[in-house]
Backbone:
């Protein structure tokens, strides 16, 4: 069949890419297996805690505070789908499509600005936000704790 | 393409079965990602590359990352695993199993009695793009409004 060989031709870069990915992964795993040390001592799996045997379980529940960031990520991810649909046929869509996608991005930029202003992208907890204040340093903004009795 | 369809279908079935049967939540989620990716391959084999891309980006990429994120945050330990294993008894799965069985019977009987043509129709991403930004221009605009509402609502509902 002619179309099969044509398709194979079209897939060739993809197949080379696939083979390279597999080769790199195998090489990394094999090298770490060959070069790495393998010891099994009774204390091997213990978490190091200054020589003291650790007490209690590490299974405590972390605040689901960061969850909001992940939800926001999903919605912006959906925006990418529309952008992708527009981008594959930029010329065919013409100016109407361009204006359309500009309004689309505009509305979502407004959403992003709103979320930024109300502090939705700030994932510090309330206590951290109260205790720390930001300081404009030479390398950007640093959050430092105020001295006792200082401004908060 | 037929081979692709059947192998992806087989992988989807095995992965989904593993999602149901595995007692470790994180393992189940990784199987769910494999299942969604193989469904994306099925969409591709049926001639719907845009749906395949959506499946990979939105479901496997974003929603599964969210699930995995939350599961790792919750940091469920051995106790939850034992609980999951204890839930794997017939009295609990027989109800949903029967209902899904009825659905499967209906589906198979419809396929057998009615004359359904399953010839795949190739719909390229370009066609969808021209439709979305042509006649359905307003729908995209409404979608952006919906996303805006979703963003704001998600923050305020999850806040407290």
Residues:
């Amino acid at each position: 069949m002619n179309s099969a060989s044509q398709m194979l031709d079209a897939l060739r870069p993809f197949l080379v890419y696939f083979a390279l990915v597999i080769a790199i992964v195998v090489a990394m795993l094999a090298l770490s297996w060959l070069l790495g040390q393998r010891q099994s001592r009774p204390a091997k799996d213990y978490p190091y805690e200054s020589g003291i045997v650790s007490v209690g379980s590490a299974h405590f529940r972390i605040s689901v505070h960061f969850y909001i960031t992940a939800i926001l990520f999903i919605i912006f991810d959906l925006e990418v789908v529309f952008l992708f649909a527009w981008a594959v046929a930029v010329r065919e869509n013409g100016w109407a499509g361009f204006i359309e996608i500009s309004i689309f991005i505009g509305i979502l930029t407004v959403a992003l600005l709103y979320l930024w202003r109300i502090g939705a992208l700030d994932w510090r907890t309330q206590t951290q936000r109260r205790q720390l204040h930001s300081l404009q340093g030479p390398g950007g903004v640093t959050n430092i704790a105020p001295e006792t009795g200082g401004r908060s | 393409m037929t081979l692709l369809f059947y192998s992806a279908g087989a992988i989807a079935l095995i992965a989904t079965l593993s999602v149901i049967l595995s007692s470790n939540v994180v393992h189940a989620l990784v199987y769910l990602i494999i299942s969604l990716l193989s469904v994306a391959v099925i969409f591709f084999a049926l001639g719907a590359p845009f749906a395949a891309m959506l499946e990979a980006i939105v479901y496997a990429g974003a929603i599964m990352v969210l699930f995995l994120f939350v599961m790792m945050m919750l940091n469920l330990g051995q106790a939850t695993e034992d609980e999951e294993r204890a839930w794997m008894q017939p009295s609990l799965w027989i109800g949903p199993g029967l209902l899904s069985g009825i659905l499967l019977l209906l589906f198979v009987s419809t396929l057998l009695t009615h004359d359904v043509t399953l010839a795949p129709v190739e719909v390229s991403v370009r066609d969808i793009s021209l439709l979305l930004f042509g006649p359905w221009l307003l729908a995209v605009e409404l979608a952006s409004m919906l996303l805006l509402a979703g963003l704001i609502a998600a923050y305020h509902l999850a806040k407290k």
